[in-house]
Structure formats: C-alpha cells, structure tokens
Amino acid sequence: MASESLTNRKPKGTGIVTRLKKLAFGMKGNDGLLYKLFIYGLLIGIGFVYLFPLLYMISYSLKSLDDILNPLVNWIPTQLYLENYQAAYAVLKFLPTLLESLYVTAIPAIVQTAVCAVVGYGFARFAFPFKRTMFVLVLATFIIPPQVTVIPRYVFFNEIGILGSIQAFLFPALLGQGINSAIFILIFYQFFKMMPKALEEAAQLDGAGYLRIFLTLALPMAAPAIIISFLFSFVWYWNETYLAAIYFGNSLTTLPLELQKFVATYQQMYPQSGGEASEINEGINMAGTVMTILPMLVVYAITQRWFVEGVDRSGIAGE
Amino acid sequence: MKQLSMRSKNSLTGLLFISPWILGFLLFTAYPLFYSLYLSFQKVRITTEGIQTTFVKFDNFKDAFTVDALFTQKLLTFVQELVLSVPIIIVFSLIIAILLNQPIRFRNFFRMIFFLPVIIASGPVINELISQGVTSIPSIKDYAVFETMLSADSLFSSVLLYLMDNLIIILWFSGVQFLIFLAALQKIDTQVYEAAKIDGASNWECFWKVTLPSIFPMIVVNTVYTIVTFSIFSLNPVIEHIQTNMFQINTGFGYASALSWIYFLLIAVALGISVALLTVRGRKNYA
Asked: What CA–CA distance (Å, rounded) separates B147 from B140?
C-alpha cells in the first residue's frame, strides 16, 4: 500500500513494445506483471517452506510401513492408512491427556489474563511513586531466563507443597509472574493508556469508584486486549515443556510432554518380542506429532483472525 | 488540601492495582534471583532434613569453564547460532512484512501461514521434526553450485551449511516479529512516500531513507524479542545441559545455578551489545 506510487516510468513513445513493457513492468514500478509474478512467487515459495514440515508430517502419518519403505511412494500414500493414528492415540492416551493439557493450560491463562489486566490498568491510569522504576522492572522480568529462577522456585514450591499440581503454574500467574507476563502487562498498559481521561472523570462525577470504573468502563473497552492475551497465554502455556516437566513431575502431563517420551512409552506398550509389526516407525511417530499439534491447529483455525490482527492492534508495536 | 488528598488517594489506588505484581515480583522473581545467586556459590546437598549448603567460593563457576568441557562447548555453539540466526530472522521477517504490505490478494491467507509456527512451535514437536530431518531443505545440497561452495572448508561454507540445515527452524522463529514489522509498516504515513516520490526518490531509496528509519524502533524491539525467545527455547542445548545438571548427584542445584547465571549474563551481554550496536548505527545514519 505504502510504496504503491514510488517510481514513475513514463512510457516513451507508443507501439507494441511499449505496451508490452507497460504490461510487464507497470506504470509505477510495482504494479507490472513481472513484479506481481515475482512477489507471488516469493510468497508462495516462502509459504511452502513454512508449511513443508506440516505437510510432511501429515503425509507420513498416513503411510503404512510398506509405503514408507517403498521408494516410489513420495508424498501421497497408496492408501488411507489410519492405524498409525490408532497406535498414537493409545500411546498418547489422547483423550485423558488432552483434557489434562487443557486443564493446566486454560486455567493459568485465564488467571494470567485477569491479573495482567489489573496490573496494566494500575500502571496506565494512576500516578504513584517509583512508577517508572517498577515499569522497567516489569519489562526486565521478560529478559530473565526461567532457568535462573527455576531452581529456587522449585525448592520454594517443594516447601509449600505445590509441586506436581496446577498451583505451580497458578501461583506465579496469580501474582503477575507467569510465562511472558511482562508482555501481557505491556499490552494492557497500552490499551488502557488509550482510554480517554474525560470518560473516567465523567464516571467519577457520577459517583463511581475506581474499581467500578475499571470493571464497567475500562474492561469492556479492552475486550480485544483480553482476547489476545488469553489466546497467547493459552498457546504459550500449552507449548511450555521445560517448566511443566520440572514442576509437574509425573503427576500431571500434557500432550507435548507425552510426545517427548513417545518412543519410550511406545516400547513399553508394545515390547519388541512380537516381530516387526510392533516396531515403532516414522509413520506412528508423525501421527503422534500431528495429534499433539492438532488441538492447537483447531484453536488457530477458529481464532486466527484475532491472533493475527491482535498483534498489530495490541500495541506491542505501538511504542 | 483537598487536591493533595485526591492525589494520594489516587496513588494509593494505583499501588493497590499493581500490588499483585509487586508481591509476585518479590516472591517469584527477586527472591529466587538472589537465592539462585547465593546457591551458585554453594555446594548444595539435598538431605532428609532439607537443603544443606556449603560455601565453595567461585568453584562452581571455575568448574563450569575448566572441568565441564561440554558446557563451554555448548555455550560457544549457542553464541554462534545466536549471531547467525538473529540477523537472519530480523531481515527475513522484514522482507516478508514488506512483501505482504503491498496490495496483493490472499493477504490474510499468507499472514495466517506465516504466523502458524508460533502456535505449534513447542520443543518436543520441533524435536520430532528435527529428528525426521524435515527442518532442512532436502536435496538442495545436491546441487553442484552448493557442492562447490560447501567443499571449500571455510567460515563461509560452515555458515552456509548451518543455514541450510536449520533454515526452516530459523524461519519458524520469525512469526511474531513479522507481524510486528507489518503493523509498524502500516502505520507509516503514505504522504511521506508521496513527498519522497515527488523529490525523485526511487523505490530503493525510499526503503533506505523512509521505511527503515521509521520502523527502526521496531527493529530494536524485534531484536530483543528474538534474542530472548531464542535463548529460553527449551530445545536450546545450554538449557538442556542446565536441566540435566540440576538433578545430577555430583553437581546438583549449586552448580546448575552457577551455569544458569553464566548463561543469564551471556544473554544480558548479547542484548546489551546488539541494542548498543543498533542505536549507535541508528544515530549515525538517521539523526
């Protein structure tokens, strides 16, 4: 859009050559056919590179062992082979694991969104001593790698006895220290900054207290920020395996964690005595991977509008 | 008098709103941070009565560089990968953003695809993909051009080899960055371009003189974001190393704390250097 009308190639003279030139290079340097072809070619090429692992996964997950070994079968399996999925379904214990993943992902995400909204509002609408310092500290928490604080947190959680339960995720989220909380506080800060002061004053004249203004006036206006924060929070908690593995131990599990020990679980379930059929192959492995990312793909398919528009409207890019 | 009480009431309410964060920061960030610094100077043993520590001065840090050959090696690999990947991620996401900022069809479709990896990029999934060899572009190495380039044993060829082996992973890391750039590009006033065009600037000149300076702050933001996400990604070899040392009997929490502090300082230095480089360059060119 922005660079639409930059250069100005005026057609010199008339005739078929010029017209062809005009068609190929365009009037303004970026609306010609060649240019368009180039852009679309590039985008499609890059898009393919992005999708390549996904397509590969899906293709392999549908291949039987014969298809995998057959060098003639490249992308499209000879038959729709779903036994890989059956095996992966059993190994992942898909349904219970899915429910557990949702449980340890959605609840911290809701809590984190709520708390970050409150904190962001506090930073955006009030003046108090050391505000700047504290805001810098908020942003600083983003660059501290979780590895530095995980050991003391582990010891601390062990002492208060919340290891192996969802509270290990919930407590930090409740106090604004969840995964990437700093980003969400920043998003809400930007949103609440935009709220006109006059609106708040009018409500104050009507006798509304601070809490009421926040709940009935500010929060509804920040609906996009709430949606974005929840979605991102959800995805980031879902994909978090480092902290989840340490905090949850063996008592709670998620689909990515199950995928991590996929091969081991498989070999436990199907000991290698029963001949070749019981051996794990790429197809089963890929079926497990597809099933692990499937819930996220579904979530993304439904919410991608918010996701994509969210980033550019959320104000991450606003400062 | 009334004005003052209003003000103090206002600041008190503000503090109340952010009080969860203050409490959380002290409890879950500041305290663990210092405690892990303290642990990094200790030999930590876990006994039935709880944790026992003995002060060992800088032994943990010394061991990290002298005894533990793996750690320095992994740290070096990490630095190399960081230096290579971050500029590529930034440049690449900028290119995609500029491409998509044109009036083209299926824009939303492409945006959707380029953002997709952010949704599914978790450690175990990527691990599966790497072990299947899907993350490198297959068969590109067979081309004669690349073969000759790779056969020369130079810095250039090793860089090229790394890129080809990890291209998809690198690209998969650029989802958020590309959207941030896209948002920034859309905020540039079109009138600036019109003015530049009237002054006879070409597309190329417009990019360097108008686009780049106006999205410059976003380049800094994206660099910081990229370095951070790249470093805390759970597949990172350094992180794996720290995690294995955490639960090993002969090393334990003390040593792992020292490792994570070294790692933290390294990331901080990397962030400092890159931001400094960017802003110095920025001032020279665009002030």
From this structure: 9
